[in-house]
Amino acid sequence: MTVKLFVNARCFTPIDPGRPLSGNDQGMIREIPRSAILTQDGRILQIGPEPEVLEAVRHLSPDQEIDCGGHCVIPGFVDPHTHLCFHGLRESEFSMRLEGIPYLEILRRGGGILSSVKRVRAATEEELFKSTQQLAQSALAHGTTTIEIKSGYGLETQAELKMLRVIDRVGRQSPLDVVPTFMGAHAIPEEFAGDSEGFVEMIIHEMLPEVATQGIARFCDVFCEEGVFSIAQSRRILEAARALGFGIKIHADEVHDLGGAGLAASVGALSAEHLLAASDEGLKAMAAAGTIAVLLPATAYSLGKPFARGREMIRLGVPVALATDCNPGSCFCESIPFVFGLAVLGMKLSPEEALTATTLNAAYAVGQAKSCGSLEPGKKADFLILEGQTPAILAYHAGGSPVKAVYKGAERVV
After folding, report:
1. Cα 356 versus chain centre, distance
2. SS3 content of the chain, % helix, strand, coil (to 5)
3. Of 97, 123, 126, 124, which is closest to residue 109 (Cα–Cα)?
4. Per DSSP, what are the bridge partners of residue 118?
5. DSSP assignment of 130-186, as one string?
6. Architecture of domain 77-365 in CATH?
7. Average pLDDT, the chain
8. Architecture of domain 3-75+374-412
9. 3-class state of residue 409 by DSSP
10. 180: which of 47, 158, 167, 280 fits an S-S bond (Cβ 3.0–4.6 Å)?
């Protein structure tokens, strides 16, 4: 048994009521100005005002006492939407976008998502692991302690299974808790050009059963968008995935309002992601269903688009989470502090709402809230020490990371 005592902390945490926080509750944060955290074997045993915790410690003999220096302590970040598993950057494509070159022309020149597909298919498993592990370590250094990573650059069964093996290995060989998501329905591969129905049939009857047998992926995601997968196709894929035991997610209404938000609510998706073009009707359906909105402000920033209407979603009662969407095309960003700042300054969330969105609600969005997302007894001792006095430092310190230390299971990993 290993007991650790963290003292002289200024703790800020959402309190888990057994569901994602929404509406006015999203900004409800517990502040303990002079606090202490007692951990046992990597989990929180007690947290509260320092005198109370010290009284409890009299009956124990901590193996180590750590002084947090009076700094702000918050839960470790949970990043609930990433495409971290890829090989090779698309920097030249970014420059083309800045010049105003349309995406179809970028595709014609060999760019776009299909260029990442070619690279992932050609990469060895070891090459893919090294590039994914490097990004995962960077995310950890920025304060992420639990992360979702999607497949989706294989678009054929064996390449998708390879990606999921790599994602699983990153979770086993790094301090991070990794949640793998199967996203074979990310784009239409070249070999199925003009035959999206044929690819949908392949996903349902070949890919999904193989992925289920592999036993790594916990969720299935689909890109429901004009020119990719229609509402009807997305529904078929998600319902087939659910029948095989997968949790379901959906990339919804990123560019056009196809009704993806409403679809997410109707099929019982845990989360709908992007939502830049989602209608009020779709958002109200999500609120009624309890579907979590996973918003990706760094993607809107990178693409020069308006941010998703996070402020309005909170008003409508939709639980809001935030994520990086780290990928080689539309958003090369693994920094939750940067996302936090964009959400506060660009989407007009309060720092307290953004804290909930990057911790507890994000944990719910990947099915991990029983073990992380808030600083409470029984949960993992995953927390960050920041350079400031409040979580607002994450938006105030623009362009940098105010994360001084990262603790995973009470062990300092950064």
Report:
1. 13
2. 40, 25, 35
3. 97
4. none
5. HHHHHHHHHHHHTTEEEEEEE--S--SHHHHHHHHHHHHHHHHSSSSEEEEEEEEET
6. Alpha-Beta Barrel (3.20)
7. 96
8. Roll (2.30)
9. coil
10. 167
pTM: 0.97
Q: At what angle do helices 125-141 and 157-172 cross, to 10 degrees?
A: 40
Q: Give CA–CA dist 358/355, Å, rounded.
A: 5
Q: 209 by DSSP, 3-state: which? A: helix
Q: pLDDT of 138-170, one tens digit each? A: 999 999 999 999 999 999 999 999 999 999 999
Residues 217-229 have a mean pLDDT of 95
Domain ranges across the chain: 3-75+374-412, 77-365
- The strands making up 144-150's β-sheet, listed across from edge to edge, are 77-79, 144-150, 177-185, 219-224, 247-252, 271-274, 292-295, 320-322
Which residue type sits at 256?
Answer: H
Q: Could you tell me whether strands 320-322 and 292-295 are parallel, antiparallel, or unpaired per DSSP bridges?
A: parallel
- For 190-199, the CB contacts below 8 A with 24+ separation are 190/114, 196/229, 196/230, 196/233, 197/233
Asked if pLDDT for residue 231 goes beyond 70, the answer is yes
Instruction: State how far the Cα of 346 lies from the Cα of 295, in Å rounded to an integer.
Output: 12
What is the pLDDT confidence band of residue 107, given thresholds at 50, 70 and 90?
A: low
- pLDDT above 70 (res 104): no
Structure tokens at 352: 């307290």
